[in-house]
Amino acid sequence: MALNLPQIVQILEGDESILEYVTKRQKSKLQRTYSVELFDADEYNSTKYLSDRDKQLEFVLGPSNEF
Q: Is residue 3 one of the residues assigned to a domain?
């Protein structure tokens, strides 16, 4: 959060209420958020990994003629 000039002046003059306000705003912005992808990572197992790897190899090397 960028401070505006009046807020900076208040802080320099020793107004602790504006400093507390700014500190609370900063802390609220620093809270960690969790992505849905992180929760999905638990469901990603070795079988899915191998399947994805095979698909990537097929894309890079071309389709395999072996059945």
A: no
Give residues with Cβ within 8 angstroms of 18, minimum separation 6: 7, 10, 11
Q: Structure tokens of 22?
A: 């700014």
Position 67 pLDDT exceeds 60? no
pLDDT at residue 60 greater than cutoff 60: yes
Specify if 56 maps to a domain.
yes
- Flag whether pLDDT at 1 surpasses 70: no
* Residue 24 located in a structural domain: no
Domain count, the chain: 1
Structural domain harbouring 50: 33-62
